[in-house]
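From the pipeline queue, job 12 of 40. The input is one protein chain; the requested action is below.

Action: predict structure.
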Amino acid sequence: MKRHNRILSAAAVTALVSLALSACTTMSSTQPDPTEVKVSELEQRVDMVERRVDNESLVQMNSQIASLEEQVRGLRGQVEQLQFELDSARKQQRDLYLDLDGRIQALQGGGGSASAAVSSAPAAGVAVAATASEQEAYQAAFELLKQGRYDEAAAGFQRFLGAYPESNLADNAHYWFAETFYVTRKFAEARDAFQVVVDKFPMSRKMADALLKIGFCSYELQQWQDARAALNRVGSEYPDSTAARLANQRLQRMDSEGH
């Protein structure tokens, strides 16, 4: 009997030990590792910081983009305003130049009529009529040019030159005929037409301007050597003229552009 009780006691002890070990194991398995907890918390903090930085960077970038867009809009407006003012100034300058040329030609025409009147009356009548017709035809084409009706002006100057090839206005007519091509950016045709002035009227007061425009046309056609040759000739042959100053400015521009 005593032996039987000892066996039961041993069994009970064994069972209690097993239960204790089992409980410890269960508790250890359910409780998280402190190291793992800390790593997880750090990872979460890093993620939060990264998201915050990304959001702040995005906001800053969007702000910079908006600022740049505003600056671009402002610059575009300034460029458009400057372009408008430049176009207006060019038009005013061209109109003044054309008007001045017309006034000079009108005075020249009047002078011719006065000198013709000194001779005999019949001859004077014929001379005055011819000069008046020339002046009227020239002025009609010139007015079309001033109005910006370039195709009609070109046709008018051609008709004038066909009717009065020996007129004292022929050099001017050739020059303004060439100008109708230049202002419409037909630079090859303009250059050839300006060359006629240079070849046929070497003593014309339009000579310097014609050479200048030949240089400008060659520049637009990217024929750099021809452009330099014409522009240098303006400076050497007409050093004190406005054309020479403009030629020098274009040469300096070509130097800066590496042409």
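Job complete. The CA atoms of residues 72 and 78 lie 10 Å apart.
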